[in-house]
Write a structure and sequence with these properties.
The chain has 361 residues and is an alpha/beta fold. The protein has a domain of 244 residues: Rossmann fold, CATH 3.40.50.720. Helix content is 42%, strand content 16%. Strands 3-2-1-4-5-6-10 form a seven-stranded parallel β-sheet, sandwiched between helices. Strands 7-9-11 form a three-stranded mixed β-sheet. A two-stranded parallel ribbon has the order 8-12. It binds nicotinamide-adenine-dinucleotide (NAD) and thymidine-5'-diphosphate (TYD). Thymidine-5'-diphosphate (TYD) binds next to helix 6 and strand 8.
């Protein structure tokens, strides 16, 4: 039975990936999830699988080499899927250091421990071992408004935010391990994800939550920045396909073919909420465009991200399956069914975060 070590599996994409993998492979795989449980990590995301015999949770920091090495020593790990990171651009602008710590040093620890566990005396690696580093399209920088330009795997790195700079650094470390040691790895650079379990600091869940509660919908700058949105289950599938079918040492860009301005996203959410809420629901009264509030722009705000996922389609046959209209409905339906989840994650520290982040906006 193949054993996976997943880092950051209690976060948004990691927990969706773990659900996807158990749905696909059931008892044919074992997953060990190592997560520090920062504000973004939530074991409630994994409630329905936590009692499986083929699932183990280890609370640890990826920067803690002893703790990570112990996992490799006690288990014959076949696959590493490395999600753990600080992931929010606004937080990186306020406090960059923890991004360097987790995203750069933490990745170095993961690489070192996997190398130590998998390397043979002749410097080659045990058969079949693979490391997948999950990264972002933000490492490529920003595209002009002109919608004919795209990010490709060959696009030079040009990160701007502390978040994207730390992810770019971690990508370079993985590339260095592949080039120097022939360490068996892949990198995926994905566009913006949305879907169940996303923490409401990111645009889509924040807008859904604020709209349902009749709170202002903060739009940075002119609202015309463009992101390419991908439904998170499609991302989970891409990661699995790259690890199984991709060529080792290659980078694959993963994108949604779904570029939208932020203001368009907000309008779609408002319309979809109106459509999905039952007649007579009091929230229908306050969900309207009057909630939209233009606020001070994000510092260094990247204008446009867009991926052409041609390589992954040509080589592996992956493409984004979920149309945005369908994905946003699934996402909103999930939030309707998980009101307690939202209440829990927005109580306590979240209130303070929100006040600090939006006080001057
Ligand atoms: P998230 O913030 O929801 O989850 C991150 C998880 O990592 C949390 O469970 C957190 O507890 C854990 N973690 C943080 N620091 C840790 C540490 N030092 N040790 C162990 N665990 C730690 O993030 P996400 O949105 O799920 O993103 C996952 C990965 O995907 C990240 O590497 C991110 O850069 C990348 N990515 C995200 C997106 C997106 O749209 N969210 C797009 C492309 C790539
Ligand atoms: P976000 O979800 O933080 O993802 P990223 O910055 O990694 O792309 O933001 C998506 C876009 O939405 C980005 O252009 C910033 C914008 N945005 C707002 O306009 N208002 C908000 O409250 C947030 C969180 C984001």
């Amino acid at each position: 039975m193949r054993t996976y070590l997943v880092t950051g599996g209690a976060g948004f994409i990691g927990s969706n990936y773990i659900h996807y993998m158990f749905k696909k492979y059931d008892n044919d795989i074992r997953i060990i999830n190592v997560d520090k449980l920062t504000y973004a990590g939530n074991l409630e995301n994994l409630k329905d699988i936590e009692n499986r015999d083929n699932y183990t949770f280890v609370r640890a920091d990826i920067c803690d080499k002893e703790a990570i090495m112990k996992i490799f020593e006690e288990n014959d790990i076949d696959r590493v899927v490395h999600f753990a990171a600080e992931s929010h651009v606004d937080r990186s602008i306020k406090n960059p250091e923890v991004f360097v710590q987790t995203n750069v040093l933490g990745t170095a620890v993961m690489l070192n421990c996997a190398k130590a566990a998998w390397e043979l005396p002749d410097g080659t690696f045990k058969e079949g071992k693979k490391f997948l580093h999950v990264s972002t399209d933000e490492v490529y920088g920003s595209l002009p408004d002109d919608d004919s330009a795209f990010f490709y795997e060959t696009t030079p790195y040009d990160p701007h935010s502390p978040y994207s700079a730390s992810k770019a650094s971690s990508d370079f470390l993985v590339k260095a391990y592949m080039d120097t040691y022939k360490f068996p790895a892949n990198i995926t650079n994905c566009s913006n994800n949305y879907g169940p379990y996303q923490f409401p600091e990111k645009l889509i869940p924040l807008i859904i939550n604020n709209a349902l509660n009749g709170k202002k919908l903060p739009v940075y700058g002119d609202g015309k920045n463009v992101r390419d949105w991908l439904f998170v289950e499609d991302h989970a599938k891409a990661i699995d396909m790259v690890q199984e079918q991709g060529r080792l040492f290659e980078t694959y860009n993963v994108g949604g073919h779904n570029e939208k301005q932020n203001i368009e996203i907000i309008n779609i959410i408002l319309d979809t909420l109106q459509e999905m809420l039952p007649e007579g629901d009091p929230r229908k009264e306050h969900i309207n465009k009057d909630l939209i509030t233009y606020v001070e722009d994000r510092k260094g705000h990247d204008r446009r991200y867009a991926i052409a996922p041609d390589k992954i389609k040509a080589e592996i046959g992956w493409y984004p399956e979920t149309m945005f209209k369908e994905g946003i409905k699934k996402t909103i339906a999930w939030f309707f069914e998980h009101e307690d989840w939202m209440k829990n994650v927005t109580s306590g520290d979240y209130q303070k975060y929100y006040e600090d982040m939006y006080k001057n906006r």
